[in-house]
Amino acid sequence: MKIDPVNILKDHSLKHTRQRVRVLEEIAMDAVAISQPELEKKLGKEIDRVTLYRILNTYEDKGILHRVMDLNGTANYAICSPACSEHHHHDEHVHFNCTNCQKIYCLDVLIPAIKMPKGFKASAINTMAYGICEKCSAGMKAD
Ligand SMILES: [Zn+2]
Ligand SMILES: [Zn+2]
């Protein structure tokens, strides 16, 4: 998926600052979700923690990013696909947490509609699969 940070900011009527663009660039760099500590490490010299935190919150509110908690309870961020923001759902696809490399993948697998009991209104549903990712299982076979 090709990401144009400046366009994304424009689409969500956010002013584009250098720092906001940098955060999007870092998150879009890889197909896997990036953890908050990893982001802090990569952007620490340019953006202080408080600002980074604020930017991530804004992006989450706007539906630009979605947050996924991994096995260790660390926040990871991934860019929402255009389909994702169209439906105003933040987590309608399955996530995969590799227990070997710890990476989180956004899978192109939709969560089927889940019927809630009467009186319950779900605003988000989080489905996480755990196991060995494609890359790690390929590496294991080679050994
Ligand atoms: Zn893996
Ligand atoms: Zn995702």
TrEMBL record:
GO terms for biological process: negative regulation of DNA-templated transcription; regulation of secondary metabolite biosynthetic process. Its cofactor is Zn(2+); Mn(2+); Fe(2+). The keyword Metal-binding applies. Keywords: Iron, Metal-binding, Zinc. It holds the Pfam family FUR. Zn(2+) binds at C98, C101, C133, C136. Binds 1 zinc ion per subunit. Fe cation binds at H88. InterPro entries: FUR, WH-like_DNA-bd_sf, WH_DNA-bd_sf. GO terms for molecular function: DNA-binding transcription factor activity; transcription cis-regulatory region binding; zinc ion binding. This is Fur family ferric uptake transcriptional regulator. It comes from Pedobacter nutrimenti. The lineage of its organism: Bacteria, Pseudomonadati, Bacteroidota, Sphingobacteriia, Sphingobacteriales.
